[in-house]
Please model this.
Amino acid sequence: MLDKLVREAVAAIHAAFPDAPPPSPAEMHGDHCPECIATNAVFAGRRWQEITVADLARNLPVSLLTPAAFRYYLPALMLRSVEAPGLLDCVPEGVVGSLSPPNGKPSEDMAAVYATFDEAQIRAIVAFLRVFEAREKLDGYPPEAFEWAPVSRSLARAIDYWSGRMRAGGEAR
Model:
């Protein structure tokens, strides 16, 4: 089951996110602290397809990416998190958290980013989240309990938000 979800998520992410130039240096400019500078430097000038597990294994705080950087590098963050969650420490949790608006209401900056995702990209995000739902459930419960096993609050909130967007044809909620 999990292998199938992983394959589906990987295929959906590759299909939904086109090859495009990376954000400009001005869009990557997050310099209010040394951690922001270091985090954005890992990504700056690179295409999302070039980001590796090794790049992300430094326990990068995803929340420090500028909105433009988060939007552009989200497919790499999702793919590498799906491929090697155990090697990435807090990165997968950071990605899920960044996709999990409190009370279903994203901040103004994140609402602007979320609004740019088309239907295929929203489906890819949901497929990514379903992989982590399955991992959480299968990690702590027997397979027969899958339907009712709980998941973290952040993951449940993200699944609810993005599944709602998917049902609404991509419209923001």
Observations:
- The chain has a mean pLDDT of 89.
- The two ends are 30 Å apart (CA to CA).
- The chain has one domain: 2-167.
- Residues 2-167 form one domain.
